[in-house]
Amino acid sequence: MKLAILSRNRRLYSIRRLREEAERAGIIIDIIDPLSCQLIIEPPHSRIRIHKKSKIRNLPRYDAVLPRIGASITEYGLSVVRHFENQGTYAVNGSQAISDSRNKMRSLQVLTQAGIRVPATVLTRSTQGLRSAVNVVNGLPVVLKILQGTQGVGVMLVHTPISLGSVLDTLRTLDQDVIIQQFIAEGAGRDYRVLIVGGKIIASMMRTAPQGEFRSNIHRGGEANLIHLPPSYAHAALKAAAAFKLDIAGVDIMESEHGPLVIEVNSSPGFEGIEKATHVNVAGAILDHICRKLAKT
């Protein structure tokens, strides 16, 4: 099998682990920077060229492509994934699934349409009607999230109406659309991260925020611990991944007094924290899934 991994940083933990497991399995693997790709359409065909070390060459055909594209290059990265798809390459997470999961409002729309519980949320560009928006999400404090943020970046907890209006005005001058979301007090500072590969839960952990922080992301200093995932949470996680048609997904779930709430579905989840907390070989599970998928085609 010949696999292309789209990533701007080959030194990331997840990329290093995928390379290690690929070598053990005898899988040929190329790490490709999406921004070095030149996408060419010459009807009725398409091809991809890559710039590397002052040279340009056509990319060979791959059996599969695994996108690990960051939020900062989402649009260009998605164009690269679509080009691979147009060539008939199996994309481990397709471009539409990545696009739907990356935008926080679109993600919540997909989840709600699938009957999955999420926090009450409002998207608005107008500062008028803020009091009404706050009432919809059960009052202050509220959580503000920019639509394209990852790893806890662009997530804020706001306690007063004045602060809310000020933050919204500032973000809009920066051309950032923001959602106003219900603050789940009973689950604040912790959540479940559930990793799904090929429609199966392969690992789960609880992330706990450091003292004084409400975001539990590992990149924000959160602590990861192995836990037994309650059945209702497992069901919500599997249903969420299926709603996006994601082969690989990191589903984040918060506890609430009404049961599990899905707060985010990540189409390119990091797995350093979850591998270390659970001792599950996530990289190996991902490559095994790709091999099984290709064997069926």
Give an overview in words.
This protein has about 300 residues and is an alpha+beta fold. It folds into 3 domains: about 1-100, Rossmann fold (3-Layer(aba) Sandwich), CATH 3.40.50; about 100-115 and about 185-295, ATP-grasp fold, B domain (D-amino Acid Aminotransferase, Chain A, domain 1, 2-Layer Sandwich); about 120-185, Dna Ligase, domain 1, CATH 3.30.1490.20. Helix content is about 35%, strand content about 30%. The protein has 9 helices and 16 strands. Strands 14-13-12-15-16 form a 5-stranded antiparallel sheet, sandwiched between helices. A 4-stranded parallel sheet has the order 2-1-6-7, sandwiched between helices. Strands 8-11-9-10 form a 4-stranded antiparallel sheet, covered by helices on one side. The longest helix has 14 residues, at about 230-245. The mean pLDDT is about 90.
